[in-house]
Amino acid sequence: MKILVTGGSGYIGSVTSELLLDEGHAVVVFDNLERGHRAAVDRRAALVEGDLRDAAAIRAAVRDARPDAVMHFAAYALVPESMRRPDLYFENNVGGGMNLIAAMLAAGVRRIVFSSTCAVYGEPAADCIAEDTPTRPANPYGESKLMLEKMLEWHARRGGMQAVFLRYFNAAGATEKFGEDHDPETHLIPNVLQAALGRRDKVVIYGDDFDTPDGTCVRDYIHIHDLARAHIRALDAGCCGAFNLGNGRGYSVKEVLETARAVTGRPIPCEIGARRPGDPPRLVAASGKARAELRWTPRFPELSAIVASAWNWHRAHPEGYAR
Ligand code: UDP
After folding, report:
1. pTM for this structure?
2. Among the four 76, 123, 220, 253, which has the fewest Cβ within 10 Å?
3. Atom of ligand 1 nearest to the CA of 191
4. 143 and 214 part of one domain
5. Residue 43, Cβ density class (10 Å: 0-12 exposed, 13-18 middle, ≥19 buried)
6. Is the Cβ atom of 170 under 6 angstroms away from ligand 1?
């Protein structure tokens, strides 16, 4: 198949493109390279530089590429930034998404796999979050993703689209080629590994007074390779609707630090800091639906394997992608 990948220069888009190409699919990346990296676009893919907020640009890209399906990753994805500047998130994630939908409808492209997030659930009370847990986003980022899900759902209901929403929990790890490189880096595992490499002094743990076993936040980390594979399974399975992608097992911030110390053999200094606004204490996926309906099973569920793959990538690319 030929797949148009928006955001193919970003962390998850780059790895998914790599796996699609490995499986023999053709990939056209549509990306403005604003927050991604040219070096993260797989060399076997075609790159169309353009911005989703430019309706004519995405319309031309979809018309010219004539893809069988779209995988839509391009979006802003920083919760704190979304709290400061909701306008940016609605303009880019929702407005850009609407332009993409319009371009697909105009070109008769009906299949889409959409990069969504567990942030659509907000701060659920449930121990394990299933797809029918009420969606109550706690920030504009989560809201922007949910709004696009809803638009796609209405198009799907009226028969115009086959849409899958993959609600990611905490993506982490790397393949040999592609890894995580954000500027600024806000995510836990890359920050921990930067400290292991001596590129930052220490890790600040954002609060140790949560109602969790060791007081630090619990998250469900999922290997980027497993996440990327789920997109291809979603395409193959021809399903619709929302699917959580996680391992169903939570690790605290302190457990991540301990695992990283064991994997790297380095001390990794840390200190306890203030809570980060909007951090729910525990986010763990019930991912039985993806396992059953997408026939998807994570191959690398162990946190140590996830961290080891990220460590290999960070050691090989201490500066990230060349800027
Ligand atoms: N975190 C932390 N220090 C950091 C980065 C993150 O203590 O330098 C915590 C954060 O508060 C959250 C968890 O680690 O509880 C995972 O954060 P991340 O930003 O990686 O993902 P999120 O769950 O926010 O999407």
Report:
1. 0.97
2. 123
3. 8
4. no
5. exposed
6. yes
